[in-house]
Amino acid sequence: MDEKTQNDDKMMKVTFEDVQNDPQIQALIRGASHVLNVMNYTEHGLRHVGYVARTAHMILTKLGYDAKTAELARIAGYIHDVGNMINRKNHGITAATLVYPILRDMGMPLDDVCEICSAVGNHEEEIGWVVNPIAAALIIADKSDAHRTRVKRLNQHFDDIHDIVNYSIRKNIVLVDSERKIISVKFYMDNSSSVMDYLRIFLPRMIMCEKAAKFLGCSFRLYINDIIINTVRQMTPTQLDSVKDED
Ligand SMILES: [Fe+2]
Ligand SMILES: [Fe+2]
């Protein structure tokens, strides 16, 4: 083992639990959650970041990535939204900038910090790119978290389409079929909203998920109430003939 690898090996003792228990990280998550509460955004507190951390870790583990990469994705999932403490706009970039010195001070090797920060700085659909496997897992985990519990009960603005759609979602699941290389995101909605409403606000996020799945060598399937949304059912030649345009 060369000297650099030995040093890095000694330094990779920063675990998810270390990050979770760090007072600076805890304060940033509280601050971000507070700002978004005031802005009447959906829940971005410990429930959201815990879900994203768990799901990002699960995606890479099921796809056979090594334990360290999956752990880095788990950490990225936990800290990805702390930039909201400063401002909603460009919060991914802000988050990466905020956590970089904290992770370094905790003793995380530079290459690992860079991978996490690249992923965190690229998780927003408006400005993000799928730059590494951690980013891919983070994007799918983050964008799949739509659920009625994210709507603030005391601040329900049911004229807001985000609240309407989120409130109609009773269940959300991410499934990874490692053999067939398929990542599926499934939502179960009640009839207080519609697929059209869902697509109106979440289509760019699902397109980003498609790109993330492709980066991981998988195809992406979006289901709403068990109906696949992003592919069409294959028709037989006879069926196709029967729907030909009339001259
Ligand atoms: Fe975010
Ligand atoms: Fe998020």
Q: How does this model look, in words?
A:
With 247 residues, this protein is an alpha+beta fold. The chain has a single domain (3-230), classed as Orthogonal Bundle (Hypothetical protein af1432). The chain is built from eleven helices and four strands; from the N terminus they run H-H-H-H-H-H-H-H-H-E-E-H-E-E-H. A four-stranded mixed sheet has the order 1-2-3-4. Helix 4 crosses helix 8 (133-143), helix 5 (67-79) crosses helix 8 (133-143) and helix 7 runs parallel beside helix 8. The longest helix is centred in the last third of the chain and has 21 residues, at 195-215. The radius of gyration is 20 Å and the shape is globular. The chain starts with a helix and ends in a 5-residue tail after the last helix. One fe (ii) ion binds at residues 80-81, 91-92, 123-124.
Low-confidence stretches: 7-11
Main pleated sheet:
4 strands, mixed
The chain-level mean pLDDT equals 92
Per the CATH scheme, the topology name is Hypothetical protein af1432
Number of helices: 11
Number of domains: 1
Helix-strand makeup class? alpha+beta
Helix content: 40-55%
Query: Compounds present?
Result: fe (ii) ion
CATH class: Mainly Alpha
Shape: globular
> Strand order within the widest sheet?
1-2-3-4
- CATH superfamily (homologous) name: Hypothetical protein af1432
- What's the architecture in CATH terms? Orthogonal Bundle
